[in-house]
# Entry
Amino acid sequence: MRLSEDIAGFISRHGVVLIATMGVDGKIHCSVKGIAGVNLEGKVFVVDLFKFRTYKNLRLNPMVSITTYDEKKFKGYTLQGEAKIINREDIKKDIILEWDRRTIKRISERVISNLRAEAEKDSHHEAELPHQPQYLIEVSVNNIIDLAPPIYRKKDQ
# Structure
């Protein structure tokens, strides 16, 4: 399924999604993950810095949903699809470079924001996380849910 430039741009700009997987016990598991890229062909590349519950769930059931929302703009999307696990050594170099660029940008923006607010901050969360992904989640989108209230959706939807 192709993504519109609007949806792809929205997901890419937010950089963080909530990914939902299904556990062996039938319970839904949600986790926050970083976006490493989105393309118009309907692929979303999600980075996982840990190999824990999400990874185990994906090995059993590849069906996922990823969600991001901007409460100030009353705009958001849930993208549903099938995930493919890409092992660390098989992640394309351009995706790793994009992930590094996004991480540096988030840290820089947080530092600048804290300086402007004259806030004292003991740590910068992204800097404390592992730097390299344990694996990549490649989601092939097959359904898009617009989370905006109906009165704010585009007329062609």
